[in-house]
User: Fold this.
Amino acid sequence: MTTNFATSPARVRALFERIQQNRYLGLIGLAVALLAPFVTATNYALSVMTSALLFVMLAVGLNIVVGYCGLLDLGYAAFFAIGAYVSGILATRYGWPLLATVPVVIVAAVVAGIVIGGPTLRLRSDYLAIVTLGFGEIIRITANNLTITGGPSGIYGIPGITLLSLDLSSPVGLYYTCVVVVALAVLGAARLGRSRLGRAWRFIREDEDAAEAMGINTYRVKLAAYIGGAIWGGLAGILFGAQLSAISPPSFTFLWSALILMAVVLGGMGSTPGVVLGAIVISVLPELLRQAADYRYFIFGILLIIVMIFRRQGLWPARAAERQSRRDMRKAKEHDLPKAKEVVP
Amino acid sequence: MTQLIWNGLFVGSFYALVALGYSMVYGIIRLLNFAHGDLYMLGAFTGFGVLSVAGGLVTGLGFVALLIVLVISMLVTGTAGLLLERIAYRPLRSAPRLSVLITAVGASFALEYGMRLVAGPNPEVYPVRLAGDSINLLGARITIQQASLILIAVLLMAGLQWLVMGTGTGRAMRAISQDPTAALYMGINVDAIIARTFFIGSALAGAAGVMAGGYYGKIDFLMGFIIGLKAFTAAVIGGIGNIKGAMLGGLALGLLESLGTAWIGGQWRDVFAFGFLIVFLTLRPTGILGERVTERV
Assistant:
């Protein structure tokens, strides 16, 4: 195709929109992820790609809270830490296989979500931001001070993942495990966003009072979003422990929470492809720009401000309207009606 | 015991100074300025910079030098707060709350890592160290410097109280915090007053930064993060948006921390303070002096 990019911004936009509408986008992404190790499979490349996948999972989880529901969570790394520590402690001190820790991690994440979200979600939504910030610090300092979490040196010797008798602890095995888990996580979050609950989340994001007037129990729906984000973060924590085999408190600072938020905001709050892309950019870019490491976070900060002022919807905005189902489109064709126009924000 | 109370009040007066700016900005435009703690950091570094440049000239003067540095740093951080409001917050004044909060996080990040670029990642040691004679008061050891720092803090707070309650600017601030639109109709220059609020709040944070630098002796680019959180806690305890509340909350938090730390151990200090924030938000979200804030639709 020979589109003249320089002279036809409208056509570029149309092309971009067509890509955005593509139903097979997710499958293409999955194929790229599955085939990537055939291009380069050094241990370094695999570790970068695995980290990128984990980051995607975290960003998609945070997207449930920030993107769908419009609640600012600044302590997201805390759930990540809870997942990593709970599974790490059970695996190293009690000899559980990592897979068996999954239910416990989910329960721990849900409990933590209720403990923090329960009291604060009744208040003004901006209080949540700062309470989660404090919560992130509480978890990190607690991990640093307790003996069961190994104090400042953390937990080491976390075993890899084994499924039945299949050992998935090699870099390639871990990478493919992550591809599968993260693909399911992305799919799950996207489906959740389109569900009845997801519509309620977006309604609350747009206008909480109106949502309440329409009979949505805003408190419970917000709590559901917060708990959903917590579960995603906790599960990512298990994979993180399996990847590094050692975890320690400095891995879970505010910096992490801020970077995940950055990925969500940059990609486009509430937009699954945008958030996935944002997460990949944020996690891979530093590897490519090693020499600019000092400027990195400074630029991230400036970028957050610029994105908020000039392009609030992010690089890959979410659609305001829901995608028509195939059945609806067929029906529309049968009745020879013009296709319903989608509202572009 | 008296020592614990004294230490608590001392640390609490720092918290109160930072909490005041937090609370003022929140009271007037309902914005949680995450970058506020970093203005405190900026104040400490400005003081450090001035002291390093002026070097041998002032070290002999000790306390008086610190006072001059204090004023310079207050001007610098005040201006920084002004710029921050103009560049980052004003364009977003009518934007959804989430966008403004994210902008504030970005501003905080930019200030922290911008300072890291300028001053390097390692902690700096303050050239003037305030350690001196101590006097005994009711069984507590109090150094003269501690007492004078508290005095400065009290003077600053008294000045602020006068400014808000006794001047035209203060009346305009209170009017805007009640209803910005009505204030605009009454002929108040809302933008200018908000800018002034940012200047004053940031200058107070900067003053606290210099005082903390002079007292603790060590500063680093992330020092504002924890104090920002603590200041918010203090502001919530006192009732956010309320000036007397912020002072009270700062002192209360300082006391609680001091007593709590003695009880459960120093490494748990921050956990204790933030845990207290969560408990307080659950039980009395409006704070000690705050009134119920009704959400406007």
